[in-house]
Design a protein that fits this description.
Keywords: Lyase
Radius of gyration: 23 Å
Shape: elongated
Protein name: Aspartate ammonia-lyase
Pfam families: Lyase_1
InterPro entries: Aspartate_Ammonia-Lyase (IPR051546), Fumarate_lyase_N (IPR022761), L-Aspartase-like (IPR008948)
Strand content: under 5%
Number of helices: 3
Structural class: mainly alpha
Oligomer: single chain
Number of domains: 2
Domain Fumarate lyase N-terminal: 2-76
């Protein structure tokens, strides 16, 4: 949830988080300080960074496999 939640009752916030968790299949929780959650996206930036690193490692791995599979009978053609 984004926002301060000042206008929403505590029970409503809990129900919304439970329903979103049920629909998405994720274990969600309500942050203690919603002002901080709306202003600081440090945790999301870290996740984005880790996903970028994972993607680059997987691309390198796929390229290495492609290179290793190249030979006289498969992969890149051999030319002199």
């Amino acid at each position: 949830m984004i926002g301060s939640g000042i206008g929403a009752p505590e029970k409503y916030r809990k129900v919304v988080v439970e329903k979103l968790g049920y629909v998405t299949g994720l274990q969600l929780s309500l942050r203690e300080n919603l002002f901080d959650a709306a202003q600081n996206f440090d945790d999301l930036a870290k996740v984005s960074s880790e996903l970028r690193l994972l993607a680059s490692c997987l691309i390198k791995f796929a390229k290495d496999l492609r290179l290793l599979s190249s030979g006289p009978e498969a992969g890149f053609p051999y030319r002199e």
